[in-house]
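**Sequence, structure tokens**
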Amino acid sequence: MSSSPTTDRLLQWWLDDADLWAIVVAGGSGNRYGGMKQFEMIGDERVLDLAVAAMGCPKRTVVVLPEDVAGMTLIANAITVAGGATRSASVRAGLAALPETARRVLIHDAARPLASAALVERVIVGLTEADGVVPVVPVTDTLRTLGGEPVDRAAFVAVQTPQGFGVAAIRRAHEGAPDATDDATLVSANGGRVVHVEGDPTNLKITVPTDLIVARALLSGDDPAADDPATGHPANVPADEQSERP
């Protein structure tokens, strides 16, 4: 993580709060992607390494890996554990690895390698007043139900990670081994107070191969939608992944 006033402030949060930890969930098999996307490269670094670095303190980060590679994958300075069959099971494996002194935890998906220091800081700050903190961004697409009815998109937001929680609250929410794609949902259902903070539109989740192309462009400072004047196709998309355009 390069130094800037924001990253320096994030580092100070870690220095001042010894009870703060992070869990990076990287236990998925990548079925929709077609492989383990967390090990794909963006520049000289793996997606997973960028996601861990984004949290700000690898030595207080638990990385949850697929069981079949957990003993073979090194993450500099971080603690690694094997995950479970579902995301929630992997989160519980990460929670079990936290020390008894942990009081607050950031839970982040490894598939989001571009989380900014400013975003992470907003989540940490939000934890001073709630059991859970969720970064959200507006929904910009027009929405319809499957039955064709229009939906007011102003009533919806898209949820991101890292999400922040009091350790006691998130552990209570996971008692009984419930399953959910979103930890804040479990905390809310358990009676915890969850607040929203501003997310970041560039904090994209890598789900399909084209998302990786966009992430590489964003990290390099290029415009992923810019066309190469020589070809008329997006400059950052390999030729074999380009479709015909009118």
